[in-house]
Amino acid sequence: MRSSRALIPTLKEAPADATSVSHVLLLRGGFVRRVGAGIYSFLPLGVRVLKKIEAVVRDELSKAGAQEVLLPALLPAEYFKETGRWELYGDTLLRLKDRKGGEYHLGPTHEEIITDLVRREVKSYRDLPKNLFQIQTKFRDEPRPRGGLLRCREFSMKDAYSFDVDEASAKASYEVMRAAYCRIFDRLGFDYRVVSADSGAIGGSGSAEFQVLVQSGEDLIAACTNCAYAANLEVAKTHALPRIGPDPASVPAPDRVHTPGHGAISDVAAFLKRTPDNFLKSLVYVAGKELVMAVVRGDHDVNEVKLARALGVSDVRLASGAEVEKATGAALGFAGPVGFKHRIVIDRDAASLTDAVTGANVTDTHLLHVQPGRDFSAEAAEIRNVVDGDLCPDCQSPLKIYRGIEAGHIFLLGTHYTSKMKATYLDEKGEHRTIVMGCYGIGISRLVAAVIEQHHDQNGIRWPLAIAPYQLHLVQLGAEPEVVAEVARLERELEARGIDVLIDDREERPGVKFKDADLIGIPLRVTVGAKALKAGAVELKPRSEADPKKAELVPLANAVETIVARLQALLEGSSKAG
RNA sequence: CGGGGUGUACCUCAACCUGGUAGAGGGCCGGCUUUGGGUGCCGGCUGUUGCAGGUUCAAAUCCUGCCACCCCGACCA
To answer: Are A287 and A316 in contact (CB under 8 A)?
Structure first.
């Protein structure tokens, strides 16, 4: 492809509404344009990247035994009504009506639709297992789209669904998909971790996320520095901490202390000359209609997802200042578990504290010498956030906290959907049994952004070869006949070798072309100009080389072979990454 | 949905506070120049100042309402 004929509108300046690196570079490089909040058009370069990612995904999934289908995006309401998700999904579901007033929605995910297909077509244990996937546009009316392609309301997703005769078989299907996902993420050149995760609204019994590790990621994950343990902070566990404080038997009775104006833990700690880990931090939550106090060590934070799970509710919210003051009878900052009249949940590592300090439920007052279990009773559970340096629950090595982008998520659904939708088969004995299901998602368009978040420098994108929009950027400098002829020869011979070449034949100054080449980020660049041609050579420079002057002179006679060899080496390099 | 912010040319922004004919740079078009990391000079095109009301002789500017977008939080591929 020749740049002079292509639509590759690069921008010198970043549009003001883009903040994430990938968003800025996708706009500046001419890959996408914004149409509305969380709605994007893909330009030619963007489409090429999408297609390359899709090709890798299709290849690995078909190797894993999955078959591609294409389900509609426009869906009658009846399917989601059947499983209750018509109500459950809430405002995230994009609903619409047809001319007759019939209720429809745009598909945010397709468990119901695929299950309906399978229950109609699969009748016998002989028909199982099945694994079906599609690559399709999904619609979710996100409360807050952000970061360009990182979180869209319309986005491309690969979703796969497995159907098995029983749990053991479903688990095997799940493991096959997990392995396929690892190969996909390896081939795409990601630095990623597979982490245990909460199943969330999709439901089901187990799940793992594929988290691409980047500083700008919105998810927090805890990963062991020694073994394979890794988990989303929402579910991460730790080995119990050693007890802090003296022998419980030696702790005197609680004693009030005047702490005027010192509500915050750090303030009181400094005022009382103690460290925050001597404190029991007490937060009042509303779970359903019930008030609950969550108690963690002063240097720890409550994890609301874990708290909700410990309480057996779907979510909790922090009580308002007024609610807290009504419940404790004291100003905000002086709540404590001793004498608290509602349910109390204490974090395991707070329960082992002895001789602790807590709020006294009296304004400007704290209690010293508080002893969990002796002075108040509470249910113990792991309800705090894991922090850097906590110990791995499996091997007790230190955990480290990373930030990540959730790029893939796999679920063991069990019979969550199939039982509601009566998707059954006849077993060998002629008895009806419920199909066991798994589902597997990859955010294809999100991956485009994730790649850039992980592969860029101050000059632009650095695509891994496997998904670069073109494999080679041929930069033509000047328009002397010998330059034009050499460019044409390379174009012909390289394309004959099956290489995707983007040729910058625009009438632009060299600086403009080099800047654009760095911005667009094609992994290998060949420069054809009078200067090198005089020496009978062209210049070769990988995008990964930061030094602008460092280019390799390659004699014309070897140019094609050298380029092919370099691309081969790059491909092997990127598939080893991650 | 809570909090914060922004809407002026294709892009980045100024002018708004203190009302008086809407500007710069980049881009784009033309000319000359330059030709290995966004060349320099000259000329040119581009606007219902987000929308609707209101106040005023006069509104980008002040007031009211609405809309859109971005960022931070609660949710998710």
So the answer is: yes
